[in-house]
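Could you help me review a protein record that somebody else here produced? What it holds is a sequence and that sequence's fold in token form. I need someone to confirm that the token line plausibly describes how this chain folds. Take the sequence as given and treat only the tokens as open to question. This is what I was given:
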Amino acid sequence: MEKEPRSLIFRATPLICLLLLSLLYTELIWLRYTRHCGSDQMVGNQEFRNWCSIRSTGKDGQGIDDQEHLNFLLRRLVRGEDQTQLDTTGFACHSDFHTDVCVASRPVRIDMRTMKVYATFSRGIPQENHIVRPYARKADKIAMSFVSPVQILQGNITPPACQYTHNVPAAVFSSGGYTGNLFHEFNEIIIPLFVTYRPLQSRLRFIVTDFNPPFSGKVTKILSHLSSYEVINPAADQSVHCFPGAVVGLHYHDYLAINTTDIPGGYSMLGFKQFLRESYNLKVVNVSEMNKPVLILLSRPKTRTFLNEDEMVTMMKALGFRVIVARPHMTSNLDKFAQVVNSCSVMVGAHGAGLTNAMFLPQGAVLVQVVPLGLRWLSARYFGGPAKEMGLKYVKYQIEPVESSLLTLYGQDHPVITNPASLFLKGYMAARAVYIDAQNLTINVVRFRETLVKARGLLERSAPLG
């Protein structure tokens, strides 16, 4: 009777050993993967990213429970001497022509009533205050007049008591400035959000000052793809929150641009477009997936209006395009309009904020920008250069004076017609009042047809269409 239990033990021993070896191997792999979380080995390696996501957030996705890993992620938001300062003191600020960004890699308290950030970990050093207006257009006095300051307090100060505690860092930015204009929303908020916070892998909580409900509603999918947590509106919250770290402000590179060397992980505009596809669940990646050429014409009702729009549409259809005329009621819902644009292979529009929707075009699509009188430089900087970085083909149509309503107003010999640069010398607002706010267009459809033939040719070289 005693031999039977012993026999069972001997038979179970190999199974137990195998189980122990399996657990040991799993732990070794876990340590190997998490040791490299956030390093360059992570880039492009989905398996590493999955492991690191579990390690950093916990299986229930509750946030960053590893202060060392949090410090590593926040350290990637600063450069050079700022990294050394962040390592030494837990706090560093970056400042340039466009923006200010301050990073705290140690616990802070934020009073939502006053938007004061208490960095009490810096006791023992003289009290120092930093004022940051967290919007990426620092040199523009008009824009910044709509952006509230955030005050960061250091030194021997007594902070208010915590009412809410979080285990992910705070990310503070403003939705003031020029919100309401799609170009400025992408240029000064959305792309800077991606540039600044994508490396944090959604483990952050946004605090949006100057809270703008229409803007927040418009970009809900973008914000939720950058953060796993509900946005905090300080004006509605009025509480004191504690965070393991914080970032105040947004990094900025250039007009609708991302400098790959200045963002951890090597993100680019192509990476940003992929991020938009994921955020809006866009189906078409490349025009090679499309069977017929679809052209979307951006219709402007107030300024830089196509006065002979119907004639233009007739010509476009004669060239074999299926034409979608996008009027304001269609473009106002970004979620739905992104899907419409993603189904198109050519976008045509006069210089203006609506061309920002080219972000949603598939790779290899063609952007045709109609350049009004006096707006050559702005057109090239705002959309011409960026279009190429987005993986789009770009064609411009420079109007002639006879196609501008300004010719009738001023006459062919007036400096407004013959020398637009002279008006810009009087200041941007003087030039804007004429070339942006008071100009409409009557397009020469015969000449414009040549531009669309060129666009069709570029399209067919990207992907043969029926």
User: Anything to note?
Assistant: The longest strand covers residues 366-371. The mean pLDDT is 86. The radius of gyration is 27 Å.
